[in-house]
Structures are given as C-alpha cells and as structure tokens.
Design a protein that fits this description.
Elements: H1 8-14, H2 16-24, E1 28-29, E2 34-35, H3 44-49, E3 53-57, H4 59-76, E4 80-84, H5 85-88, E5 100-105, H6 111-122, E6 126-131, H7 137-141, E7 144-147, H8 160-180, H9 185-196, H10 198-205, H11 209-219, E8 224-229, H12 233-248, E9 251-256, E10 273-277, H13 284-296, E11 300-306, E12 318-322, H14 330-348
Parallel strand pairs: 3-4, 3-5, 5-6, 6-7, 8-9, 8-10, 10-11, 11-12
Antiparallel strand pairs: 1-2
Helix pairs in contact: 2-8, 2-10, 4-8, 4-12, 10-14, 11-14, 12-14
Bound molecules: 5-amino-5-deoxy-1-O-phosphono-D-mannitol.
5-amino-5-deoxy-1-O-phosphono-D-mannitol binds next to helix 4 and helix 12.
Length: about 375
C-alpha cells in the first residue's frame, strides 16, 4: 500500500506531480485563459461585488490560507484576512452577509474549523470549503466548495494536501480575477499556461534528493532551526518549520526574513541552521542581505534557490535548486525541498515519520 516507499509521507511527497495535475483537471483552459470552478459557479456574480474574504483554518491548512491571501490580493484585488479557526470562533468577529468565508481543511473534520464555519454561517456569510476528503463534515456544512482531489493522505504530516490546497487557492484567485476583470485574458493565458507545467517542475524539484540528504546529515543533530522567507515565501517558511518540528521534534520557527532583526537574530551562532527561501523574485536582493546578516554571525545557511543562481551560491553553505517560475507559483515549488528535508532528518533521527508522537491526523477535539 506504500507503493514501494518506506513511509506514506515519502510516497505522498512523490505523488505531488500527479496530485496537482488531478487538482487542475477540467478546471483550467490555458489557451482560452479561462478557469472553471463548478463548485462555486453559482456564486460567480456575488464574487464580482464582495468587499472582503476571510480565510479560516488550522495548522498546515492555515499556511495554505496565507498563500491564498497573497494570491487573491495580488490578482483579484480583494482584501483577505486569514484567521486561526480556533481564535476566530472564540472572538466576536465582525461578519456580515457581504462576506465570503473560505474554510480550508484536508480532513474536513477539524472541530475548530467546523465551529468557525457555524458561527460565520449564523451571521449570514457565504461559506466556501476547500477540502480533500469528499463527503466529510465540512463540505456538508458549507454553501459551496472546491475539492482538492489529492487522494487519501495517510501521513500525519500534511504534504500533498498542502500543495493541492495552494493549487485550489491559485485557481480561485485567477477565477475571481476573471470575474472581476482584474487580469486581462492575455495575462491569464500566460499564467495558466505556466501553471499547467508546474507538475513537471515539481518533478524536477523532487530530484534534488541527494543534496537534501547531505543537508539533513549536517543539521540532523541541531536543537533549533530557523526558516526565513519574504512575500509568499514567508508562509512557505512557516510550513517548513512546522513540518520539521512535528516529525523530527527539532524546535523550528518560521519568520518573515525582515523580522529577523527584531529578535531572532539574537539566536544566531555557528550552531544555528537557517533555511532561506531565496529564489529569484521581487524580494531576491532583500533576502540576499538577510543571508549576509546570518553569515556574519556564522550561522549555517541553507538556501532554496532558482536553478542557475550565482549570487546566493557565493554565500550559502548549501544551495538546493528549484526550477524558475512566475512568483505566483513559488510556494508550490519551494515547499517540495522543505518536505524532503524534514522527512530525511526525521528518518535519520529514528522518528516515527508517519505517526509522530502526540499528533492525530484529524483533530476532532477543540
Ligand atoms: O484536516 P485539517 O486540514 O483541518 O487539519 C489541520 C491541521 O490539524 C493539520 O494541518 C496539522 O497541522 C498537520 N499535522 C500538519 O502537517
């Protein structure tokens, strides 16, 4: 059932070129610059006039929500708020009939996310779901939704469900942009054509396994690890840190790289590994100066870089390459090496990768 892989997690990591293809099937028409999302079609008109979107989720799904915020604001120009479902439900948030709430959940059974949905529904909001498990409780509670179609995810650490959630959010952002006219057809053609090829690029990203194992060997006995990124690289850093802590029990934190100087920089010494999302995009130069700050304090720099990078290679201790892509698709690609890195570290430390201590696949208690 593990298809020849040692763990479900590894199998699920390697399934991503296929799961993302499945997620996009029948939904994108690159040549026409068109996105079709049958599940939310009846709300197409409503999307033209909404003033804001609230995303609620927990854990990894919340990280996908942060990527969604970046994409929806960038392309559809709708203000987005991302909330931990567990906090949102216990506040008295301001919600009206004009709001659209997007609930993200792999399992579709997370208690806090369900409670957040119920509260928002009572206040009259329209609720969309992004779920993986068909027919679960959350898809039944929502008004409409889009399934991720990643297939069953057995490993407690979410991998392919995360990239499928990000894919759905990318499709939603483009769909909303199409409804609202914030992207031209020619730009949509360009973006969708590139998105169509992302599964092949993920396949290439999966092939950096050798260098990733070397990095894992180097940092496997560390007590701490920092993950830093900017823009949509920030949620990727958060997700990298969560993966590492949950399966290897190494304390890890994700931070926006620019926040380093407001505190975490105090932690850096020759024993601190710092993983940077340092791909060539709008924040590339800024990330380079953050890398210099870490190197000046003798931190161990591991950088996720764009294929063919020269600048970061001069400074970093280890570079892991991913294929070049439009900034919109960076989270989908940069996440892959971080999943593999935490996997290999956990295996080297002898941890139970698929069933880490104290964790459950679906958290049905509040
Ligand atoms: O099923 P859900 O997406 O609602 O689950 C949310 C979190 O419990 C989940 O993402 C958790 O953080 C994972 N263990 C992360 O790998």
């Amino acid at each position: 059932e593990k298809g020849g892989y040692e763990h479900f997690m590894l199998k699920e990591i390697y399934e991503q070129p296929r799961s993302i293809k499945d997620c996009m099937r029948g939904r994108i028409y690159p040549q026409e610059g068109k996105v079709q999302l049958g599940g939310i079609k009846e709300f197409a008109d409503k999307l033209k006039n909404i003033d804001r979107i609230i995303i609620v989720a927990c854990g990894t799904s919340w990280h996908a929500g942060l990527v969604g915020e970046y994409l929806i604001e960038e392309y559809a120009r709708i203000p987005v708020e991302v909330e931990y479902a567990s906090e949102f439900r216990y506040r008295n948030p301001i919600i009206t009939e004009k709001d659209v709430v997007i609930a993200i959940s792999q399992s579709g059974e997370t208690a806090d996310t369900m409670a957040a949905i119920e509260m928002a529904k009572e206040k009259g909001a329209t609720i969309f779901g992004i779920c993986n498990v068909a027919g679960a409780s959350i898809p039944r509670l929502t008004h409409a939704g889009v399934y991720t179609h990643a297939g069953p995810e057995i490993g407690v650490a979410s991998t392919k469900a995360f990239t499928a959630q990000v894919t759905v959010l990318t499709l939603m952002a483009f769909y909303m942009a199409q409804q609202r006219g914030t992207l031209t057809t020619s730009k949509l053609i360009e973006l969708l054509t590139e998105l169509d090829h992302i599964p092949e690029k993920i396949q290439i990203a999966l092939e950096s396994d050798d260098i990733i194992k070397k990095v894992a060997e180097k940092i496997k006995d560390s007590k701490n690890c920092l993950f830093l990124g900017r823009g949509s690289g920030f949620p990727v850093a958060l997700e990298g840190a969560l993966k590492l802590k949950e399966i290897s029990y190494i304390h890890a934190e994700g931070y926006p790289a620019a926040e380093m100087k407001h505190g975490p920089i105090a932690l850096i010494d020759e024993e601190m590994p710092v993983v940077f999302i340092a791909t060539q995009n709008s924040s590339y130069e800024k990330v380079i100066s953050n890398i210099q700050e870490v190197k000046a304090r003798k931190g161990i720099v591991i950088a996720i870089v764009t294929q063919g990078d020269i600048e970061v290679k001069k400074m970093a201790d280890y570079c892991i390459e991913i294929p070049d892509a439009d900034e919109a698709f960076l989270p989908l690609l940069a996440t892959i090496p971080l999943q593999l890195l935490s996997y290999h570290i956990a295996v080297m430390r002898g941890c139970n990768v698929d069933q880490p201590r104290n964790l459950a696949k679906s958290v049905t208690v509040e």
